C-alpha cells in the first residue's frame, strides 16, 4: 500500500489564489484526490471516480466547479452547475458546506428537493449551483425544451452513481443522466459555433465495472476517463468481521432479529475500544428496541463533565432515559430537533452508541470507530429481503472517517448458515446492473412527450444512450435475453421490449400509434409526464366512471402506486384505529370498515385526518402525512385535469376532483368548520390565544382573508332557443375588486375553475379564470350553448378556487326550451294524419302563447305525389280549381276535406280536433304539458258548444264513435308551394257564420267555394294552441 502522506500535494500548486478558501479545512490533498487532480482540474473531459467511502470524493466535485469558474470570465452570470445525490440528506449536507465555501466567490446555491412542483424554474434562475435529487431533476428536465435555463447547465455532478442499480430509484437516475446527454447534444447541434459543452463528473463507491459507467457517460470525444481505487487505497484501515449466530429452522426472521439485541453489548465491549459505535438496524422499531436492551445491559464510564452535558441534552430530547445512559436512536420518525441534537452529541463523542436505520448510511457524515450491522435482512414492503452488497458497503463505509479517526472496525451479524457467503462478499464486489427495464413504460412516455421518440426506431436510438444498453450487451441473461444473441439480436430484443411498452401506453390512451408505428402523445400522456404519474396510477384514472363523489375519489388516490413505499408499522395501528373510529373523540369523515390492516387503509386514514384537522401525536405518522400530501397534491391535480379532458357523463367526478385537489393544497375539507371568511373581533382574540401569538397577529390574519377574492356568478338566458338547444350568458365578477386593486392576499397564479353541468351529468362548460384576468377586465362573460338533457332542464354551476376553501360558489339554473319543438318531436306520429309540417321562422319567447298561428301549429309543406299515384280526391281538387278560375284567390290557407253526405262539416272538424286533443293529452308525460292540454281542451269544447246549436248536431255528437272521421290535409295545392308563413296583419276574420243545412241536394259551384272559406274561418276560430 502507498504511503499517502508522501503523495499528498500542496493545494497552492494547483489552484489560483482566490480559490484557496474552498479548501481551508485541510492543508493537503490525499492520495485519491491527488490522483484525480490533473484530470478534474486541468481538463474538461467527463470523469468517473470509483473509490472507497471516506476517501474524500466530494473534493473532486469542488475541483470541477473551480475548473468551470477558471475557464469562464467574470461575472459568472450564466454559470450553472447541478449536483445530484440520491437522498435529500446528502443534498442538505453539501448545500450547507458549499454555501459557506462559494458564497465569498459570489456564487449562490439553491437546494431543489422534495416532490414535484410545476413552477420551479424561477427558483433556479439566479442560482449558480443547484443541488437536487434524481426524482426532482427528472420532473424539471421533462420540459427542458420549453425553458432555456436548463440548457445553460455547464457542469453535471453525480454523487453515488452506483445507485443506478437500485430497484426503485435507479431507473430515474439513469434516465435523467441520459436526458442531460440529450440536452448537450441538442445544444451542440443548435449552436455549433458557440462551442458550449456540458461536463459530467460522477463518483461512486467501489464497484468492479466502473468502465461500464465510463462508457455510459461518453460524449462525442469518446468514453469518460475513470479512476478505479479499490479498498486497499482506503485512507483509514478497515477491519472486517463477520459473526454467525445460530438460527433454528422454526425461528422467524423477527425472532432472530430480537435475539441479536442481546449480543450487541458484548460486541461493543470487544471492538469499540471506548470509541463511538454506530449500529444499523433494519426497522425504526428495531432501533428503539435495541437501544432499550443495550441501556439495561451496558454501563458506560463517563466523566463528571460528560455527565453534565448528558443531563442538558437528555432534558431536551424525547427519550431522555436512554440518552442519560449513553444510548441514542436516530431514524426518520424522530423529531428533526431531536435528530440534530443526537447527531451533534454523537459527533462530539458525547454519545457512545447510536442505533439507526440504513438511511443514515447514504451520506450523513457521522464519525464511528465501530460499525455494527445487526442482521443482514431488511423489511421491504412487508417482506424480508437481504441487503444488497452496495448497501452493505455503504453502511460499512461509515466506519473510519479520516477527519475523525485513524482506524475502524466493521462487524456483520448474520446467521451461521450465511456466514461464509458474507465473508466472500467482503472480498468480492457485486456488479452494477441497470433497473430501467423494470420501469421503462413511464420513461418512454416522458420521452415521447419531449418528442425525443416519435417512432420505434427512435425509441431504440434512445435506448442506446442508456446504461441498460451497455449492460445488456455484456450480460443479456440478467435482462431475460439469450446468452447466444449477438449485438443485432440484443437490439432486436430491446426494440421488442420497447414495442411491448408502447402498446401498453396506447391501450390506455396515453399515446397514439398509426399503421407506420408513428408515435404521438395524447393529452393524457402529457399529463402523466408533466406530473410524473406512474403508469398503474393512470390506469386507475381511466376506470373513473364519472359519477364518483369525494369519498370515491379519495379511494382512487390512496391506491396509487406512488404510495407503495408507505409502510404500515405494528406500533401505528392503535393510533390509526383511534382516528378511524372512536366514540370519545372526533374521527375522520368517511370511516373505514373494520380495523386498519393495510398500507392503503393507512394512507386513506391519514389523508382524512389531515383534511379534518385531527391532530396526530405520533411523529412517524406526521412525517408520513407530510409525504402523502406532497405526493397527493400532484396526483389530485393530474386527476382533475385528466377528467376535464372528458365531457360526457363526468360532471360529478370533475367537480369533486377539483374540490379534492384544492383540499390537498389547503389541507382542509371544502366545508371545514375551521373556515371562517369574515373573522370577528372575538374570533381574532381566540385565534391569537390558540396559536400563542401576540394580539396583532389575529388582525393580520383577518386582513389577509378580507383581501382574498370574493366571486359573483350570474346567469341569464337569451331569447334564442329551440327544443334542443338554448343560449345562456355566464358572467363572473369580483365583489371586492376595489380592495384587491390595493392589495391581494392570493398569489398571481391563483385561479378559479367554472364548471357547468346538466342533468345528464355531462360537462357543458369548463373554464379557468385567473384573478389577474378578472381584475383587468372588471368582469368576464361568455355565451354558452346548452343542449337539452334527457333527465331535466336544470343545470348546475360551480365556481371552485384552486387553493382556498370557503370561496366556492354553487348555483342552480333552469333553462327554458321551445315547447312546440319538443311537443312536435314527441307526438310526430299524431301529426302524421295532418300532413307534413315545418317550424316557422319567428323568434318568439313563448310560442305556445304568442299571437302567431304558425308558432302553434307550424307551417304546412306540400306532400309531393307522383303522377301515377293520383287519387280520386286529387282529381276532385283539380276539377274544383278549374271551375274556380274565375274567382279571386282568397288570402288565406284553405282546408281541403272530403265530403261525406248528410254530415255537418263544422261538427266533423270539431270531433276531429277533440279526438286529436284526447290522443295528445294521454301521451304527454309532464305536468306542465298536461295543464296546457287541459286548457286547450276546455277552450275548444266551450267554443264548440257555442257554434253547434242545432238539435240534430247534438244528436249526432252522441254517436261520434260510429262516425268515419275524414282525413284532414293541410295541402295548399301546387300554386301555394312558394308561400311563406301566415301574413298575420291581413288575415280574414269572420263573425258567427251562417249555418246551412247540408242534408239536402248537392251544392252548386259557388256554394262550394263559400263553404271552403267558411270551413277555413271556422277552423281559425277553433285553432288549437300547440
From TrEMBL:
Needed co-factor(s): Zn(2+)
Catalytic activity: ATP + H2O = ADP + phosphate + H(+); Couples ATP hydrolysis with the unwinding of duplex DNA by translocating in the 3'-5' direction
Transmembrane stretches, start-end: none
Gene Ontology BP term (one): reciprocal meiotic recombination
InterPro entries: DEAD/DEAH_box_helicase_dom (IPR011545), Helicase_ATP-bd (IPR014001), Helicase_C-like (IPR001650), Meiotic_Crossover_Helicase (IPR052247), P-loop_NTPase (IPR027417), Sec63-dom (IPR004179), WH-like_DNA-bd_sf (IPR036388), WH_DNA-bd_sf (IPR036390)
Family annotation (PROSITE patterns): HELICASE_ATP_BIND_1 (PS51192), HELICASE_CTER (PS51194)
CDD domains assigned: DEXHc_HFM1, SF2_C_Ski2
Ranges for domain Helicase ATP-binding: 38-225
GO MF term (any one): ATP binding
Helicase C-terminal domain ranges (all copies): 266-448
Keyword Coiled coil attached: no
EC number: 5.6.2.4
Keyword NAD (UniProt): no
Keywords, ordered alphabetically: ATP-binding, Helicase, Hydrolase, Isomerase, Meiosis, Metal-binding, Nucleotide-binding, Zinc, Zinc-finger
Membership in a protein family: Belongs to the helicase family. SKI2 subfamily.
Cited function: Required for crossover formation and complete synapsis of homologous chromosomes during meiosis.
Name of the molecule in the record: Probable ATP-dependent DNA helicase HFM1
Organism in which the protein naturally occurs: Neolamprologus brichardi
Upper lineage: Eukaryota, Metazoa, Chordata, Craniata, Vertebrata
Amino acid at each position: 500500500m502507498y504511503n499517502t502522506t508522501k503523495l499528498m500535494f500542496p493545494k497552492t500548486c494547483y489552484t489560483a489564489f482566490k480559490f484557496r478558501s474552498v479548501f481551508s479545512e485541510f492543508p493537503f490533498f490525499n492520495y485519491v484526490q491527488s490522483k484525480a487532480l490533473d484530470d478534474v482540474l486541468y481538463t474538461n473531459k467527463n470523469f468517473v471516480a470509483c473509490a472507497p467511502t471516506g476517501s474524500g470524493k466530494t473534493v473532486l466535485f469542488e475541483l470541477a466547479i473551480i475548473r468551470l469558474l477558471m475557464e469562464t470570465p467574470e461575472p459568472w452570470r450564466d454559470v450553472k452547475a447541478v449536483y445530484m445525490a440520491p437522498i435529500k440528506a446528502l443534498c442538505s449536507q453539501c448545500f450547507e458546506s458549499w454555501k459557506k465555501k462559494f458564497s465569498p466567490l459570489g456564487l449562490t446555491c439553491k437546494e431543489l428537493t422534495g416532490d414535484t412542483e410545476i413552477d420551479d424554474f424561477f427558483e433556479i434562475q439566479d442560482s449558480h449551483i443547484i443541488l437536487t435529487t434524481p426524482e426532482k431533476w427528472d420532473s424539471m428536465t421533462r420540459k427542458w425544451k420549453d425553458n432555456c435555463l436548463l440548457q445553460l447547465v455547464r457542469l453535471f455532478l453525480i454523487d453515488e452513481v452506483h445507485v443506478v442499480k437500485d430497484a426503485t430509484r435507479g431507473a430515474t437516475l439513469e434516465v435523467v443522466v441520459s436526458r442531460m446527454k440529450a440536452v448537450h447534444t441538442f445544444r451542440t447541434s443548435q449552436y455549433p459555433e458557440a462551442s458550449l459543452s456540458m461536463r459530467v463528473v460522477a463518483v461512486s463507491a467501489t464497484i468492479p465495472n466502473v468502465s461500464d459507467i465510463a462508457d455510459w457517460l461518453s460524449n462525442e470525444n469518446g468514453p469518460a476517463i475513470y479512476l478505479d481505487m479499490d479498498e486497499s487505497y482506503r485512507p483509514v484501515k478497515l477491519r472486517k468481521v463477520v459473526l454467525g449466530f445460530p438460527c433454528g429452522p422454526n425461528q422467524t426472521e423477527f425472532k432472530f432479529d430480537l435475539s441479536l439485541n442481546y449480543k450487541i453489548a458484548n460486541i461493543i465491549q470487544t471492538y469499540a475500544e471506548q470509541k463511538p459505535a454506530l449500529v444499523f438496524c433494519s426497522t425504526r422499531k428495531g432501533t428503539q428496541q435495541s437501544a432499550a436492551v443495550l441501556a439495561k445491559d451496558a454501563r458506560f464510564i463517563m466523566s463528571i463533565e460528560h455527565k453534565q452535558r448528558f443531563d442538558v441534552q437528555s432534558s431536551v430530547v424525547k427519550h431522555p432515559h436512554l440518552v442519560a445512559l449513553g444510548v441514542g436512536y436516530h431514524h426518520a420518525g424522530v423529531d428533526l430537533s431531536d435528530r440534530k441534537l443526537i447527531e451533534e452529541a454523537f459527533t462530539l463523542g458525547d454519545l457512545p452508541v447510536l442505533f439507526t436505520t440504513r438511511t443514515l448510511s447514504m451520506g450523513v457524515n457521522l464519525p464511528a470507530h465501530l460499525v455494527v450491522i445487526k442482521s443482514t435482512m431488511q423489511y421491504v414492503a412487508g417482506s424480508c429481503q437481504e441487503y444488497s452488497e452496495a448497501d452493505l458497503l455503504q453502511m460499512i463505509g461509515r466506519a473510519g472517517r479520516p477527519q475523525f479517526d485513524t482506524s475502524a472496525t466493521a462487524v456483520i451479524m448474520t446467521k451461521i448458515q450465511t456466514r461464509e457467503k458474507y465473508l466472500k462478499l467482503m472480498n468480492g464486489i457485486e456488479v452494477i446492473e441497470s433497473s430501467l427495464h423494470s420501469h421503462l413504460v413511464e420513461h418512454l412516455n416522458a420521452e415521447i412527450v419531449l418528442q425525443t421518440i416519435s417512432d420505434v426506431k427512435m425509441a431504440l436510438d434512445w435506448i442506446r444512450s442508456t446504461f441498460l444498453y451497455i449492460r445488456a450487451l455484456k450480460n443479456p441473461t440478467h435482462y431475460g435475453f439469450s446468452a447466444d444473441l449477438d449485438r443485432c439480436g440484443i437490439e432486436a430484443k430491446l426494440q421488442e421490449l420497447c414495442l411491448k411498452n408502447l402498446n401498453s401506453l396506447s391501450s390506455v390512451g396515453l399515446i397514439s400509434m398509426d399503421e407506420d408505428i408513428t408515435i404521438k402523445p395524447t393529452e393524457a400522456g402529457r399529463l402523466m409526464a408533466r406530473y410524473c404519474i406512474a403508469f398503474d396510477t393512470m390506469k386507475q384514472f381511466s376506470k373513473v366512471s364519472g359519477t364518483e363523489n369525494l369519498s370515491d375519489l379519495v379511494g382512487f388516490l390512496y391506491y396509487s402506486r406512488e404510495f407503495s413505499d408507505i409502510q404500515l408499522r405494528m406500533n401505528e395501528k392503535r393510533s390509526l384505529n383511534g382516528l378511524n373510529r372512536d366514540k370519545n373523540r372526533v374521527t375522520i369523515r368517511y370511516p373505514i370498515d373494520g380495523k386498519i390492516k393495510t398500507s392503503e387503509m393507512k394512507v386513506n386514514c391519514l389523508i382524512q385526518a389531515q383534511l379534518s384537522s385531527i391532530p396526530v401525536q405520533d411523529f412517524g405518522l406526521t412525517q408520513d402525512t407530510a409525504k402523502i400530501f406532497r405526493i397527493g397534491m400532484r396526483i389530485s391535480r393530474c386527476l382533475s385535469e385528466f377528467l376535464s379532458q372528458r365531457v360526457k357523463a363526468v360532471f360529478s367526478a370533475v367537480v369533486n376532483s377539483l374540490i379534492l385537489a384544492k383540499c390537498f393544497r389547503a389541507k382542509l375539507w371544502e366545508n371545514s368548520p375551521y373556515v371562517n371568511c369574515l373573522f370577528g373581533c372575538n374570533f381574532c382574540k381566540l385565534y391569537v390565544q390558540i396559536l400563542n401569538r401576540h394580539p396583532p397577529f389575529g388582525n393580520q390574519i383577518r386582513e389577509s382573508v378580507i383581501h382574498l377574492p370574493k366571486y359573483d356568478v350570474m346567469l341569464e338566458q337569451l331569447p334564442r332557443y329551440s327544443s334542443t338547444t338554448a343560449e345562456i350568458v355566464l358572467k363572473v365578477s369580483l365583489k371586492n375588486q376595489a380592495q384587491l386593486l390595493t392589495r391581494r392576499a392570493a398569489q398571481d397564479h391563483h385561479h378559479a375553475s367554472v364548471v357547468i353541468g346538466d342533468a345528464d351529468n355531462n360537462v357543458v362548460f369548463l373554464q379557468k379564470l385567473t384573478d389577474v384576468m378578472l381584475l383587468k377586465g372588471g368582469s368576464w362573460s361568455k355565451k354558452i350553448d346548452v343542449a337539452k338533457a334527457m333527465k331535466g332542464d336544470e343545470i348546475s354551476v360551480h365556481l371552485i378556487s384552486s387553493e382556498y376553501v370557503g370561496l366556492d360558489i354553487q348555483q342552480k339554473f333552469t333553462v327554458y326550451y321551445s315547447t312546440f319543438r319538443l311537443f312536435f318531436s314527441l307526438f310526430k306520429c299524431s301529426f302524421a294524419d295532418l300532413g307534413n309540417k315545418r317550424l316557422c321562422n319567428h323568434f318568439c319567447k313563448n310560442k305556445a302563447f304568442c299571437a302567431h298561428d304558425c308558432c302553434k301549429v307550424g307551417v304546412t309543406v306540400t306532400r309531393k305525389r307522383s303522377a301515377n299515384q293520383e287519387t280520386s280526391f286529387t282529381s276532385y281538387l283539380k276539377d274544383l280549381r278549374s271551375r274556380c278560375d274565375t274567382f279571386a284567390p282568397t288570402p288565406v290557407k284553405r282546408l281541403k276535406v272530403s265530403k261525406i253526405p248528410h254530415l255537418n262539416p263544422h261538427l266533423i272538424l270539431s270531433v276531429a280536433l277533440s279526438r286529436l286533443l284526447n290522443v295528445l293529452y294521454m301521451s304527454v308525460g309532464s305536468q306542465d304539458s298536461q295543464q296546457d292540454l287541459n286548457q286547450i281542451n276546455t277552450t275548444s269544447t266551450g267554443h264548440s258548444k257555442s257554434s253547434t246549436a242545432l238539435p240534430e248536431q247534438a244528436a249526432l255528437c252522441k254517436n261520434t264513435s260510429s262516425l268515419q272521421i275524414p282525413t284532414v290535409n293541410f295541402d295548399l295545392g301546387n300554386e301555394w308551394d312558394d308561400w311563406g308563413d301566415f301574413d298575420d296583419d291581413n288575415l280574414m276574420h269572420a263573425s258567427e257564420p251562417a249555418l246551412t243545412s247540408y242534408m239536402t241536394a248537392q251544392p252548386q259551384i259557388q256554394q262550394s267555394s263559400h263553404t271552403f272559406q267558411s270551413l277555413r274561418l271556422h277552423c281559425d276560430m277553433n285553432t288549437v294552441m300547440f
